[in-house]
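hiii so um. not sure if this is the right channel but i have a protein structure encoded as C-alpha cells and i wanna go backwards to a sequence. like what aa goes where. can anyone help
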C-alpha cells in the first residue's frame, strides 16, 4: 500500500486489481470490494456433467461468489453444496456429487456426453 498523504492506493498484484481510499482501512475495504467484483465476473467453468448431475437431482445454482458456486436443494431434506468454480478441481468432488445425486460414475460420465440412458 502506498500513500501521498491525501490518498492511499492498494493493489492485488496477482489479479491486477487496485483501489484507493482516504485512510488505510478504507483503502483495504475498497480493495476487498474490488476483488469481489472482479471475481464475480468470472464465467462458470464447471464441467457440464457436474451442473447436469446437480440440476437433475433437484439442486439449483443459487449463488456464484468469485471462485465458488453454491448449489441448494429444497424440500424435505434441504441441502447445500459449495463447489469451486474451476474445472481442474471438479474431479476432486466427484464422490461427493455422486453421493448427493445418487448417480453411478457411469451415469455421471454419460451426462458429459449429453446422453441420459
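sure thing!! here u go:
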Amino acid at each position: 500500500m502506498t500513500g501521498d498523504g491525501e490518498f492511499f492506493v492498494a493493489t492485488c498484484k496477482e489479479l491486477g486489481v487496485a483501489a484507493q481510499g482516504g485512510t488505510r482501512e478504507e483503502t483495504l475495504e475498497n480493495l476487498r470490494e474490488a476483488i469481489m467484483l472482479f471475481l464475480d465476473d468470472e464465467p462458470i467453468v464447471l464441467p457440464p456433467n457436474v451442473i447436469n448431475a446437480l440440476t437433475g437431482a433437484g439442486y439449483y445454482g443459487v449463488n456464484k461468489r468469485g471462485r465458488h458456486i453454491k448449489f441448494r436443494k429444497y424440500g424435505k431434506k434441504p441441502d447445500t453444496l459449495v463447489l469451486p468454480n474451476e474445472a481442474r478441481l471438479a474431479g476432486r468432488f466427484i464422490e461427493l456429487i455422486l453421493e448427493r445425486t445418487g448417480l453411478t460414475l457411469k451415469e455421471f460420465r454419460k451426462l458429459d456426453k449429453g446422453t441420459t440412458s
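oh and The longest strand covers residues 59-65.
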